[in-house]
Amino acid sequence: MVGDRDRGICLRISGVVMGTRLIEGRGMGMKLPRLFLIGFFCGLVAIGSSADRPNILFIFSDDHSHNAIGAYDGWLKSIDPTPNIDDLAADGMTFLNSYCTNSICGPSRAVIQTGKFSHKNGFRQNGESFDWDQQTFPKLMQQAGYQTAMYGKTHLKGIPQGYDDWSVLPGQGLYYNPDFITPEGKVTIEGHCTDVVTDMAVDWLKENRDAERPFILMVQHKAPHRNWMPAERHLNLYDDIEIPEPPTLFDRMEDNAPGARNQHMEIDRHMHLTFDLFVDLSVDTPKITQKGIDRSAWGNMKRMTEPQLEAWHAAYRPKNEAFHRAELSGQDLIRWKFQRYMKNYLRCIKGVDESVGTLRDTLEELGLSENTIVIYSSDQGFYLGDHGWYDKRWMYEESMMMPFIAAWPGKTEAGSKSTALIQNIDYAETFLDLAGASISDDMQGQSLVPLLEGGSAEGFRDALYYHYYEYPQEPGLFRSHMVPRHNGIRTERYKLLNFYQFGEWELYDLENDPDELTNIYTSADKALVDRLKSELESLVDTYQDDSDFSAFPADVQKQFWPDDR
Ligand code: SGN
Ligand code: CA
């Protein structure tokens, strides 16, 4: 690794280079002074740090559960959902204990940009606006001489800063024929979002990259986010198979704190046949009968081309007719909804997996694969019918986990697995460390580089801190999922959660109860509970979480959790 002194040299020199580039402007024909300065810069970097700084390709999807990745050995492995991501894992390292600090889209991404927890970067919940003026890792990478580019979903609002080139989806973005915000204004591009974003990244690698400098390229897919609209070529994938059910599909969360029974994320009661599963959905669906339907596939279908629409109807109409003939109810209906949900979700993942293959092939074709670290991750986990749910947000394992797989040729051992407790708070420092750039003192994570280089997982981190904020929400069938605020600590063995708005606690022994089915908060040894509470308090102090932890008045508690108090 590069020492701090060397980093200082890099930073100062690169500041000069970047300043000059900015004056010249993007893509202009002033090749001579630029090349001269880059040559000058490279020479100094070679003196001041390691000669061959790796490129970084960061492929990031939205809501991809580790259970739907073959390399994680999850319960969907038999479907073989991700052959290309599994190849990446075979070439690199899979992090088995990789977690989010706040399992929701925008906040997870804000943590990655800044290397700081939500309470420090100011983006606690979706819908807020990220302050792009603050320090972010891509700005520091630029100062260290890296070229930076980002394509796809950010969910952070505002104009991205710190990227030499970028094109981002407004908000959640659309699956078919999406709009993008670019430095030149808004554009609409025909195609499926996953393919369009992949093409942007490939074009940049082939045509627009400055071959003289190392880069970090962020490819951030919308898929497989709700509502799960697959690409045309995947509409009939998995038609002839049954997706295995998770062991907890019919769990009623009887032993959890009341919050788990008062959420709005059940396949049974909250997943909508039309909104989520496209039953009877056509462009002719009268809006009036389908509250909120404009945010679903219905809104996107109006933008489809004729051939796209034909393919869509050809795939779903016969299946919808069969569904009506079956007249399902009770557990049979839940099972049918699970199948439709999971097939569409996995079809969207197939597109993402193909993107990983295309991007790695492109690196190979360009002779870049040997000096590029490729990382695959997703903004948080997701419920795939586990406990009867979809969505995320909780500190429970299914949603707190983030896949993280990294292949760094010549450095990561092929097919290796790390059990270190890592978190998205670590990514910014990892990128900076890879670049030999200076790591700012106010960042709150730890570089993963020593782990990638084969260092021991032991002692890397004893405990993870978590804090989710998006509550109360306006109750509604489609958008909100009513997960109460909570913070907590996860150690290698235990997880303690504090639903402080309601004065409720949960404790799980992950060794004996990996599915978190039995809350042992009241039955556990008092010394254990006290120890974990005091460790949680230290984490709040260490990370300086000054959030409002006050409880709701009793009548408000009763209003949100009527059946249990
Ligand atoms: C949308 C979804 C929700 C989802 C949030 C957050 N509803 O509101 O189901 O929990 O995004 O997801 S939808 O009507 O738009 O489908 S996140 O990944 O962006 O955080
Ligand atoms: Ca997400």
What's the arrangement of secondary structure elements?
Layout: H1 4-24, H2 31-48, E1 55-61, H3 83-91, E2 93-95, E3 98-99, H4 105-114, H5 118-121, H6 137-143, E4 147-152, E5 165-168, E6 179-182, E7 185-188, H7 193-208, E8 215-220, H8 297-301, H9 306-326, H10 330-365, E9 372-378, H11 397-400, E10 404-407, E11 416-418, E12 422-423, H12 427-434, H13 449-452, E13 463-468, E14 486-491, E15 494-499, E16 504-509, H14 526-542, H15 554-560
Parallel strand pairs: 1-8, 1-9, 2-11, 3-12, 4-5, 4-8
Antiparallel strand pairs: 2-10, 6-7, 9-10, 13-14, 14-15, 15-16
Helix pairs in contact: 1-2, 6-12, 7-10
2-deoxy-6-O-sulfo-2-(sulfoamino)-alpha-D-glucopyranose is lined by residues 62-63, 104-105, 126, 155, 172, 225-227, 295, 391, 478-479, 481.
Please give a structural write-up.
It is a single chain. By secondary structure, the protein is an alpha/beta fold. The chain has helices at residues 4-24, 31-48, 83-91, 105-114, 118-121, 137-143, 193-208, 297-301, 306-326, 330-365, 397-400, 427-434, 449-452, 526-542, 554-560, and strands at 55-61, 93-95, 98-99, 147-152, 165-168, 179-182, 185-188, 215-220, 372-378, 404-407, 416-418, 422-423, 463-468, 486-491, 494-499, 504-509. The protein has 15 helices and 16 strands. The strands form four sheets. It has an eight-stranded mixed beta sheet with strand order 5-4-8-1-9-10-2-11, sandwiched between helices. Strands 13-14-15-16 form a four-stranded antiparallel beta sheet, with helices on one face. The protein has a two-stranded parallel ribbon with strand order 3-12. The longest helix is centred in the middle third of the chain and has 36 residues, at 330-365. It starts with a helix and ends in a 5-residue tail after the last helix. The relative contact order is 0.16. Mean pLDDT is 89; it is low at 1-51. Residues 62-63, 105, 225, 379-380 line the site of calcium ion.
